[in-house]
Each structure stands twice: as C-alpha cells, then as structure tokens.
Specification:
binds nicotinamide-adenine-dinucleotide
C-alpha cells in the first residue's frame, strides 16, 4: 500500500525536500506549515495536500493529524520537521522567545506524536523528527534552540521506549549545516560559506535532499528494526569540533 505521510515545516528547505522524496516513492503526503505558501508548494508535489497552521498553538498538532487521516485515509509516517531558531545570548532571551522555541521544536513534536499514535499503531507506522547537531553542541547565540533540540532528541528516545511495544518506531535525523531560510545570514557571504565548508571534512555543505534521504530511509521498511536512533547527516562536521576547540585554547 502507498505510504501516507505528514511532513511539517514543508513550505521550504528540508521539509519540502522530504515531501518530494516521499512523493517520488509513490507516497501520499500532507504538507503542513504555518506559511500559507505551503499550498503552492503542495500543488507542485504529486497528489500532496496542504494544511496551514501555527504549531506554537496547542491545538494545531491534533488538527494536522485529523486533516491527514481524513485526506489520506490513515497514517503511516509522521515527519516532525518544522523548527524555529531565535537568536540571542542566554541572558538576553525574553520568556516569550524562549517558550516559542521550545513550543515549536519540542512540544509540538510531542503533541504531534500523541495525536498520531492511535493511527500509527493501526498501521505499524513510525515517527521521524528533524533534530540537530546543535542538540549535542552548545552553539553561540542559539541557547534556546540547542536546548530544544537536545530535548527533542531525548523525546524521540522516550517515544521509542514507550511506543515500541505498541509497534510504533521513533527516530531522528540531525543535520549539520544546510543552507535554508533558517540560517540565511551565515551563508550570505562567500567568506561565511567558505568557513562552513572548511568545517566539514567532505568539503561541502549539506543539501535539503541529503537530509530528506536519511528521513526517508528511517521511515521505510528497510529500517524496520531501527528505533530510538539518531542519524547525524553533517558531512563529518561534528568530528571536527574537538579539533576546533583545541585550536581555540591559548595557554602560555
Ligand atoms: N538548515 C540547517 O542547517 C539545519 C541544521 C540542523 C537542523 N535543522 C532543522 O531542520 C528543520 C527544518 O529546517 P530548515 O533548515 O529546512 O529551515 P526552513 O526555515 O527552510 O524550514 C522550516 C519550516 O518550518 C516552518 N515553521 C517554523 N515555525 C513554525 C510554526 N510555529 N508552525 C508551523 N510551521 C513552522 C517554517 O515556516 C518553515 O517552512 C528544523 O527543525 C531545523 O531545526 C536545520
């Protein structure tokens, strides 16, 4: 049977590439985003349907799942991909900014999973979240984001523990640096791009398609025995972190 899939954050970047990857394999996809442009993007993806809603609102996750079940006749895969990164030094965040990042990145993944659970139990389906290498590495000006991503990685493992016995798998994919609308300023100059490439042993930045491929794999029958796992898709960026840290230490 054709896979029935929800992808959140599907108006652009990794989510859009993921929706296209599933559609290319014959899946039917509900593409969700707070950006109404998701309707136009969905029109470009074979047989996709769109759902517009803000995941910061507590009622949105259940609405997205209900819309998908109605439009697709059930659910096999939930890709919780929508994310937000508000930048500030730890001491400078407002409570509203802090809460917004946790709500979209972590709470919505939990609430989407809870709403999807009965349907995924029925289909023997799975959940894949887009997490981040920032969930392992403190990142300047991204304190709310890195904390939310660390929590999201643990959430996926908790889902795997509690929902594995129900026949539902949960995994995540952690990208490194992928030029998307999420981090535009970093990639606006040739200097910034060169720095990002130099931090990567493979010498190039990731693409949304690189990430989509790993998400697709984890959701596919080929990964039937994989749950509670994280695939880091960063071109090796993480393995350079220790080296960079050492280079930054100056002791005389
Ligand atoms: N680009 C990177 O380098 C990178 C690295 C690590 C992790 N990620 C993660 O990848 C995921 C996708 O990000 P991307 O890089 O494709 O960026 P993106 O900005 O292109 O896509 C994010 C999408 O999420 C949507 N979104 C944001 N807040 C929302 C909300 N409240 N409700 C509904 N939708 C909302 C946006 O409208 C957007 O379409 C995110 O979870 C991000 O944290 C990205």
């Amino acid at each position: 049977m054709r896979m029935r899939v929800i992808v959140t954050g599907a108006a652009s970047g990794i989510g859009l590439a993921t929706a296209k990857r599933f559609a290319a394999a014959g899946a039917r996809v509900l593409m969700a985003d707070r950006d109404a442009a998701v309707r136009e993007r969905a029109a470009e993806v074979p047989e996709a349907v769109a759902s517009v809603g803000d995941l910061e609102q507590p009622e949105t996750p259940a609405r997205i799942v209900a819309a998908a079940v109605e439009a697709l006749g059930g659910l096999d895969v939930l890709v919780s991909n929508a994310g937000v990164n508000l930048k500030a030094a730890l001491a400078e965040f407002t409570v509203e900014e802090w809460d917004r990042v946790q709500a979209v990145n972590t709470r919505a993944t939990w609430a989407l999973g809870v709403a999807a659970l009965p349907h995924l139990r029925e289909s023997g389906g799975s959940i894949v979240a887009t997490t981040s290498v920032a969930g392992h590495n403190p990142t300047p000006m991204c304190g709310a984001y890195s904390v939310s991503k660390a929590a999201q990685i643990m959430l996926v493992r908790q889902m795997a523990l509690e929902w594995g016995p129900l026949g539902v798998r949960a995994n995540c994919v952690s990208p490194g640096s992928v030029p998307t609308s999420m981090s535009p300023e970093r990639y606006q100059t040739e200097e910034g791009l060169a720095l990002a490439r130099s931090r990567n042993p493979l010498g190039r930045l990731g693409t949304p398609e690189d990430i989509a491929e790993a998400i697709f794999y984890l959701a596919s029958p080929a990964a039937a025995f994989i749950t509670g796992a994280e695939i880091v898709v960063d071109g090796g960026m993480q393995v350079t972190l220790a080296q960079r840290g050492a280079a930054g230490l100056t002791r005389s």
